[in-house]
Amino acid sequence: MVRQHYQRGRHDRVSGFTANVLLTMGCNLACRYCFQGQTQMETRPRMMAAETEDAVIEYLKRSAAGTKMLRVSWFGGEPLLGLRQIKRMTPALTEFCDGAGIAYRAVITTNGVLLEREAVDTLVEARLSQAQVSLDVPAELKHDKRGRCTQDRVLDNLAYAAERIPTQVRVNLTRDDVSEWDRLFDGMARRGLNKTLASVFIAHVYQPEAARGSDVGSPETPATYVEVMKRQYERAQNLGLPMERTVASRCGSGCAATSDNAVTIDPEGLLYKCPDDAGRPNRAYGSVFLDIVIKSENLLRWLSYDWFQYEACRECTLMAQCAGGCPHQRMFQPGRRNDSYCYWALRGDLEGKIRETVEHLLGTADVPSKADSPLCSG
After folding, report:
1. Which of 77, 102, 267, 320 has a 20 to 30 Å separation from 154 between CA atoms?
2. pLDDT of the residue at 160
């Protein structure tokens, strides 16, 4: 039954079409764990050109035709470097969707440094549904290229942004530090973000294929990470921060990259299934400038991916929630132990997560609902 559920979901072209649109591979920061880090070092990133923007718009119109919803995730690099592109492309997309009776939803994934008032106002006009902003523990991992800490600047930006746009904060945990958590949570509460943010969640940092170094990612063991997460969730909730639980009341179709109703588009207009591959032409399967599949093998490996092939996953009671973890890591980073692919954080305090989820569904507790997530939350 679970397998049939996921198969229906990943081949459902009626409910909607989802696109990660990478406006640039460039970024104003240089986070070592960025899954596009090596690509950024090897190439000179540029912004999406005007003719590519037009081709992307036409491609999305064709792809969304006949569906109920078009979901656009502005991504990068740092997508706010492409604010002009968002401002230019949005009217054509929303006019098409409104005229065709298609719901339009847009989200952005940003480091928040450029999320200033003017940018927020522009995003509101662009009908943005949600912003996901990443912060780090320790904060030094989000220093700018001059070595300056960006945390306070991002929190100041959030004070205005969270009042205008539903905003989710992702806290990347790389190394546990009590003083760092105190500083972060106190800074949020002092700016009133406990009242305005849509949700906050703590994320594990993994070693991506194209990271800037080999020592990237959280050194914490799964058990240690889960203990830190439980402790900090409780502290944050006591401050009134809307901490998000990772158990949903319903499951979707697994990783969007394994479905035929989602795509990632890089600044050159090349089509990929996973944003981890963006910027590597040898991983692309097509282009917005052509209506044909150029490299079918790059498409079929995702559409034929079967997470039920893994015995450890088939025997896990959380299969219906996680759909077997990250397929990109399984395909391109083989030989790692199963926990490296698995969303094992779901197992942390599972009883507490289920209890809070049920209480929320029953309306007996003031628990924040799960915010809409971008196509990829890496």
Report:
1. 267
2. 98
Nearest alpha-carbon partner for 109 in 132, 84, 76, 86: 132
d(CA 130, CA 135): 16
Give the number of domains in the chain: 1
Give residue-wise pLDDT tens across range 84-120: 999 999 999 999 999 999 999 999 999 999 999 999 9
Domain extent, residue 141, equals: 2-362
Nearest CA to 246 out of 135, 161, 170, 166 is that of 170
Give the mean pLDDT of 292-319: 87
DSSP state of 47: B
> Average per-residue pLDDT in the chain?
86
Q: What HEC string does 214-269 produce? A: CCCCCCCCHHHHHHHHHHHHHHHHHCCCCECCCCCCCCCCCCHHHCCCEEEECCCC
Q: With beta carbons less than 8 A apart as the criterion, state whether 283 and 272 touch.
A: yes
Segment 113-137 mean pLDDT: 97
C-alpha span between 186 and 267 (Å, rounded):
38
pLDDT digits (tens, 9 = 90+) for 48-69: 999 999 999 999 999 999 999 9
The pTM for the full model equals 0.90
CA dist 210 and 340 (Å) reads 16
Do 93 and 70 touch, CB atoms closer than 8 A?
Answer: yes
369 lies in a domain? no
Question: For residue 360, what pLDDT is reported?
Answer: 75
Residues written for the chain = 378
Instruction: Please choose, from the candidates 68, 126, 125, the residue with its C-alpha nearest in 3D space to the C-alpha of residue 100.
Output: 68
CATH number at residue 114: 3.20.20.70
Does residue 378 fall inside a structural domain?
no
Q: Is residue 376 part of a domain?
A: no
